[in-house]
């Protein structure tokens, strides 16, 4: 065979196509090697994603950091992702050079309402929506919503009393999920759901469908992360199944009703509508009435998505850690009783200046941050002491790896709320505490979440004592898989009335 016929033979064509596919699936893999940044060996197309699927994110991230150090290179498919728990790098990316890192990775969503959620919009649009929504979470506005939280917490006491008297043990995740759903229904959907976890409540049933779509349990969920361009076409149906429209419809009807009402509700929909409309006017009418309605609907829906499971999981983890650490639980109870000498009820005023409950929740969030990873995508190249971060590269901080680093947290496996005492010698540096992320794009609902968790915890610990039963694990275990919020398993604790 002469050279020309070999060049145009079917074998050459097959080999060229095979080479092209191999090249395409590995073309970025020199990125970290060229900079002498260590990291696990990636596989074509898959990158390093497969490893995480077989374990859960907390275990996986701690293991990787132990093996490769504070900063290492990782590939989501072919996308380079710089993992770091280095305090200086974190500060630079999340705070100092925020202009280079305004967004998370692109998560293109086209459907009406979903496309306006603050967590996925980018650049100037994000800046506008974030500025317009931030006033909703000031102390004054939270104080108004706090009354609704208190009512929900009081209803939870009635439910827990029945459980304590009849069963003596509590499926913590299920009951706290019912509570946080009750709060969200009141504060973000203008509804009162009285069932607190009863199986046939449609709000709860739909929420369960939305929060555990079958795709999340299958390794197929990794495919869009391996082929980010594909994410653009499939993310709508993978991440926002039909059941979401139950909530969108409630919100759209509610917003229409509110246009014809002069009553005051003090809930998220009302306060957000005022705040977003005012912002729009202040910048020369960026949004018309229809835009404002869509933005409000999107943020209310996001309130459910971002605020339900995170808060329920943290309360579950709190019950578990208090059951396993009776001396902390007793101290918290005594502090609550001391507060009661001045305040008759658990409410906004009582928890306003209550350091010990803050320390307990901080320590729960340190040990079990419900959102295990926080990321930023670089939009303008930048260089830190020889680490070059090109446009498009993602920087990720693993909250678990960070929160268990002995350099930052001595004796990290010990549940020790006192480490947060300002007088403590081991008081952590605020830059290494990231349950709510960091910088201008941190969790906008943080103050609301803290209010809700403090009120719930004080109300419950005042009335009940948690203790371990045979189902209570020695250490909290989390579900395997690629989950955005880590899911505690076997979170059953004993409960008795005080
Ligand atoms: C324990 C409860 C919660 C935890 C641990 C939590 C954690 C987080 C984290 C880690 C982020 C990413 C921050 C970053 O990238 O720097 C985030 C973003 C966000 N959270 Fe939360 N969150 C909680 C509750 C809530 C609640 C109750 C709401 C709503 C009222 C909420 C709304 C949001 C929104 C809208 C974003 C996106 C912010 C943006 O992109 O500008 N979160 N949250």
UniProtKB/TrEMBL annotation:
This is Cytochrome P450. GO terms for cellular component: endoplasmic reticulum membrane. It comes from the Eukaryota. Keywords: Endoplasmic reticulum, Heme, Iron, Membrane, Metal-binding, Microsome, Monooxygenase, Oxidoreductase, Transmembrane, Transmembrane helix. GO terms for molecular function: heme binding; iron ion binding; oxidoreductase activity, acting on paired donors, with incorporation or reduction of molecular oxygen; steroid hydroxylase activity. It comes from Daphnia galeata. Signal peptide: none annotated. Cytochromes P450 are a group of heme-thiolate monooxygenases. They oxidize a variety of structurally unrelated compounds, including steroids, fatty acids, and xenobiotics. Belongs to the cytochrome P450 family.
